[in-house]
Amino acid sequence: MPPVSASPALVLASASPRRRELLARLGVTEPRILATDIDESALPGELPRAHAVRLAAGKARAAAALAPEAVILAGDTVVGVGRRILPKAEDEATARKCLALLSGRRHRVFSAIAVISPDGTLREALSETIVRFKRLEQAEIEAYIAGGEWHGKAGGYAIQGSAEGFCTWLAGSHSGVVGLPLYETRRLLRAAGLSIA
């Protein structure tokens, strides 16, 4: 697919290589990267869906303040089990707890995106995907932990890696679980005036 000529410029408010790779599937190969640093702590009583939407909008607003002339794209992905928000795993103990909780059950992945146009218009979308994992043996969890794919991932796993072998069923957006739901992203970027094929 040829690169997309986008005017105004597109800013991706994320340092995630996975989001850049997914965006390239829409033909956007060289977005400006402007990672934002906002507090990602959940509010008291905040549910996973609302948490994802709030963080995506917050990241977009933070980037728009730095690049008001551009179209801003931001996203956030949250893994939820019931009302519980699973953390981004930064250590083995957290990843192990997440995988033990997800073993043999369904969970939901909420992937929110926010797009801000140069005129300040905020457009938002949310992808909700249901994922079911097989019942994981302890040896499988330990092998996955040893591989390191879990690091920094919501819920302690990366569906685009070997954890896909744990997934018995998925209903929704695979790209949303990876971190950028492409249908919603394409729709919002086109609405913001970018020439996405």
UniProtKB/TrEMBL annotation:
Signal peptide: none annotated. SUPFAM superfamilies: ITPase-like. It catalyses: dTTP + H2O = dTMP + diphosphate + H(+); UTP + H2O = UMP + diphosphate + H(+). It comes from the Bacteria. One of its GO terms (molecular function) is UTP diphosphatase activity. It is found in: Cytoplasm. GO terms for cellular component: cytoplasm. Belongs to the Maf family. YhdE subfamily. This is dTTP/UTP pyrophosphatase. It comes from Novosphingobium sediminis. The lineage of its organism: Bacteria, Pseudomonadati, Pseudomonadota, Alphaproteobacteria, Sphingomonadales.
